[in-house]
Design goal:
Rossmann fold, six-stranded mixed beta sheet, Immunoglobulin-like, alpha/beta, 18 strands, single chain, 4 domains
């Protein structure tokens, strides 16, 4: 409706402007005297500027949005530069520029920062910058930039919307973790194996050049003396230490810490040399096969950037119905913020058939475990299900030798 009325509104304002010019001129002609002519000549420059502005075309304005990069991590700042160029030096009283942000960015109270009032004057080029200090995780789009100009009297206003598409991807924040494979013996407590997962030092299959970090015991003295260079033994690759991480995607206030810890966990596993897969069930099921390498990490982080807490199935329901747990004999790491008796029972049942299952129980930064949660952890230990309680802000200690 507003779009239909816009042309008529412009015509009506132009008619009012012409009427005011005729009115002040008629007043000066019939009234005479210094005051009447002073009013007419004082109003005339503003009126002529309004007439000229009404014929000014905003199509000559070239607008560009500059974003230095497209990939960010959650919490990083984003600097956006909006540049405007034009061909002539027609004087512009003001120019209101507004970058229309995606809804996910407006929620973080950044909308006012994306607006700027510019006084171009006779300039042919002008820019303005704005910052989004704390980027939220997700995939964010920039669509349009709106321009508005007008005269000092407010009689003539012109608007234009410039479509400019930009997209940035904000990956989840992560914490540096030192991944260690948990031992299976429960009578030794909650300990983690410090052994690197990708080498089997029991069988050497060749030699290679020494690399920083190689152990002293790996040096092949015979080959070293023969080649006059330090050579170390090349060991056979151990059977792959395969891990599947399952992330709980039910709506919860601690969902962002869950995403952060899961991203940190996946990164630590892959950096350690193991292979991992990921299972999430949110709006739709997403399962990533067990692989290793940098490409797997990028693929998982891209998925984690867009994941939302929109699952209608609890984690215990996923364990009950998901066929992935039946057909794969791997280690399962579950990440959740809701510990229930049914979840422990399902994990215990699968653990007896498929091996060790570890539940990472995410809590707030200073949130203590309730009496019910402590009893559930004790029940899990009795049923040979490891529960590791991890507090937000202390993710780096998730694989410490003792977890309380």
């Amino acid at each position: 409706m507003k779009r239909l009325c816009a042309p008529f509104k412009k015509i009506w304002k132009f008619i009012v402007l012409i009427f005011l010019i005729i009115l002040t001129f008629s007043y000066a002609m019939f009234q005479g005297g210094f005051v009447s002519w002073f009013l007419f000549y004082s109003f005339l420059p503003f009126a002529l500027y309004c007439v000229a502005l009404s014929f000014y075309s905003m199509n000559e304005l070239e607008v560009t949005r500059v974003i230095l990069k497209t990939d960010y991590n959650a919490g990083e700042p984003l600097k956006v530069t909006v540049s405007i160029k034009r061909n002539n030096k027609f004087p512009l009283f003001y120019l209101l520029v507004s970058d229309e942000l995606d809804d996910s960015l407006k929620f973080f109270d950044q909308k006012t920062k994306a607006k700027a009032l510019i006084l171009p004057g006779l300039k042919k080029e002008f820019t303005y910058d704005y910052m989004i200090e704390d980027l939220p995780r997700g995939e964010h789009f920039f669509h349009n930039i709106s321009l508005r100009m007008g005269d000092p009297l407010g009689l003539i206003e012109k608007e234009k919307t410039v479509p400019l598409e930009n997209k940035i991807i904000v990956y989840p924040a992560y914490t540096e973790l030192l991944y260690r494979q948990f031992e299976n013996q429960f009578d030794q407590g909650m300990t983690a194996s410090r052994e690197r997962v990708q080498r089997d030092t029991s069988m050497a299959v060749g030699v290679r050049d020494y690399q920083p970090g190689d152990r002293f015991s790996w040096i092949n003295w015979k080959a070293t003396a023969k080649r006059n260079e330090i050579m170390t033994k090349e060991f056979e690759q151990r059977k792959s230490h395969d891990v599947v991480v399952v992330m709980d995607c039910v709506p919860d206030k601690r969902f962002e810490p869950i995403v952060t810890f899961t991203a940190s966990l996946l990164r630590a596993i892959l950096k350690r040399g193991a292979q991992t897969g990921l299972l999430t069930i949110s709006n739709e099921r997403a399962s990533f096969p067990i692989r290793g390498g940098e490409q797997q990490l990028q693929q998982l982080f891209y998925h984690m950037a867009k994941i939302e807490a929109k699952s209608s199935s609890s984690l215990e329901k996923v364990l009950e119905t998901e066929g992935l747990f039946v057909h794969q004999n791997v280690s399962f790491l579950l990440v959740t913020s809701q510990l229930t008796k049914r979840l422990i029972e399902k994990a215990s049942f699968l653990g007896q058939r498929k091996g060790q299952i570890t539940i990472f129980f995410i809590k707030g930064e200073e949130e203590a475990a309730t009496e019910n949660e402590r009893s559930l952890i004790a029940l899990a230990n009795a049923r040979r299900v490891r529960v590791v309680m991890v507090h937000e802000g202390n993710f780096a200690f998730a694989f410490s030798e003792v977890n309380i």
